[in-house]
Amino acid sequence: MGPPAAGKSLIASQLCQHYKLHHLKIADVIQQAIEKLEKQAARAESEDGEEDDESAQQAQETLDLLNESKQENNDRYEDQYIIQFFTEKLMSMPCQNQGFVLDGFPKSYSQAKELFGNKDEPEDEDAPRLEFNSKIMPEVVISLDAEDDFLKKRIMNLPESVVAGTHNTEDLFLKRLAEFRAVNTDDQTVLNYFDELEVHPEHLDIAADTSSNMSQVMEKIVKTIGKPRNYGPTEEERLELERISMEKNIKKDALEKLELQRKEEEERKETQRRKEEWATRVKEVKEQEEEVLQAHSYPLRNYL
Q: N or C: the chain end with fewer CB closer than 10 Å?
């Protein structure tokens, strides 16, 4: 958690690499959800039956609602859809098995309450109803804190080549910072939600970090979280390992085929060379025999 330009994505990426977790960014989660809906909607043209037709129709209706929502909200999706996408992602098998890091979302108290709030009634009527969904509630909440002046200076000191084409231009950054402060007032911040549930955020002052890649902040976070508890590769890593292994096997087979062809070509050339050498020797022997015969017959011809 933290304001714009606090280094959330950098730290989240480093944590995911260190602990082998899934990095959940708003843009990625939305894009993946949209792509999934588009694939489902495309099944309407398949011949797999009425169930697929109904599912495809529902997906298309959802896409239409999303496009309408985006047009009516200054090219942004409403919170209800974003929260739905995040809920589905957090409940997915990869995130449930390997774990995750939320990067910059939720941004407000209301978003956090809507995302993590428990919507299911307990199976046992006598059991107390939990206030949050324990399956997706983060175990650790990190808040990267910084004053506005520090953040503004950080953005101003970025090279133009880095800022160009991003949301870190001066105007866009100031707009994002104002929006963040507006939904995180002194009375109610996204961090208050976790405090109320006894998941107390760890506050880190990023201005005190003098390293180039926020390694000092990262070191403190790792110390807070502890050693990795995740075993085995993530789904993405497993697929990547399979891809690498397949490419190695294909390359190996191709090299072996080339080597076999090379050896066969060398053997063919060697066989041809030996044939030609043998033919040359046979020709030379015949010529020598012919010369000997002619030499022996020469006196006889003179005698006759």
A: C
